[in-house]
Amino acid sequence: MVRLKDIAEKVGVSISTVSRVIKDDKSRNVNQETKQKVWDAVKELGYIPNLHARNLVTNQSSHESKRRTMKIGWVADPKVAEFNPYFSNIYSGISNTLDKLNYTLINMYKDEIADESRLLKMIHESGIEGIILVDRIDEKTLKFLKKYLPVVGLDFYYSEETITVIDYDRKEAAKMAVEHLINQGHEKIGFIGGGSGPRNESLAVEKRFQGYLTAIEEAGMVSKEDWIIDTGWLLENSYEGMKKLLKEQSEIPTAMFCASDLMAIAAMRAVFEKNLKVPDDIAFIGFDNIEMAKYSTPPLTSIDIPKYEIGELAAKTIVDKVEGKLNIPIKIFLPFELIVRESSKI
């Protein structure tokens, strides 16, 4: 196992200097360049500065392993967690559950862990024992992170990764939504949503879009390119895209599947401004079943995703991993449900 002495020799400083950097001891000043060299050496040599991570590697005695911080990191944009109804419910599930289990949730930004030296420094300084990932981090960083901490991923960014994942089947959920519209007699069905990828650039690989196409194809119908609105997950693009479709297309769809409720509500506004009626002229179905869906005009049919439960299960799972009760990566897919309201009824 790598020792402080090895790092000191690598950097060309004393063991006490290395110790002060790793412990963030401010009693004596260490210049920033030296600190960076120490953390670079920590990364290169594979030293594990986090107490919990070291315990996992060395199987130290139960007496020593009781020296716990009871802190879990959460990598997500706090603005999204606060203002996006989908993620705020997930966040509540995580936060409330960890609180009941006497753990503290520490917010972390993905930019702060992108550099491996900074990541190691943050692990040590924050004292986190495990981490829940919501924001996308690159494959290299994820691989490095897994060496030091238990990890649980949420949502579609991590569905294909070899880590423990809490999610649901987006493709099947979207297929259920479109099949509901088909069962209502609709044959001209459009799509509103965004793509996958770092910049939401790839609509073709997005699971909800794939579910939409699968339902259309299995029903023997054709999806018209002019009825597909790629919003990049921006509300204004849903509104403007629907306005453009209604203005420019001589033949308009009789129903729209929207990959989120927020997209649906924005698009319905464009329909009302055109003096058309929902669902008489165009039916709508959303996705996520956020609280606002019940209060839109008309109330929005949606696919209910167990958002709070996703967060709750993520919190319980990361605690199980931290406490050594779960030692292999698992994938847990939660069920979803169709909630029918006035926006799609004939």
TrEMBL record:
<dbReference type="Pfam" id="PF13377">
    <property type="entry name" value="Peripla_BP_3"/>
</dbReference>
<dbReference type="GO" id="GO:0003700">
    <property type="term" value="F:DNA-binding transcription factor activity"/>
</dbReference>
<keyword id="KW-0804">Transcription</keyword>
<dbReference type="InterPro" id="IPR000843">
    <property type="entry name" value="HTH_LacI"/>
</dbReference>
<dbReference type="GO" id="GO:0000976">
    <property type="term" value="F:transcription cis-regulatory region binding"/>
</dbReference>
<feature type="domain" description="HTH lacI-type">
    <location>
        <begin position="2"/>
        <end position="58"/>
    </location>
</feature>
<dbReference type="Pfam" id="PF00356">
    <property type="entry name" value="LacI"/>
</dbReference>
<protein>
    <submittedName>
        <fullName>LacI family transcriptional regulator</fullName>
    </submittedName>
</protein>
<keyword id="KW-0238">DNA-binding</keyword>
<dbReference type="InterPro" id="IPR010982">
    <property type="entry name" value="Lambda_DNA-bd_dom_sf"/>
</dbReference>
<keyword id="KW-0805">Transcription regulation</keyword>
<dbReference type="InterPro" id="IPR028082">
    <property type="entry name" value="Peripla_BP_I"/>
</dbReference>
<dbReference type="InterPro" id="IPR046335">
    <property type="entry name" value="LacI/GalR-like_sensor"/>
</dbReference>
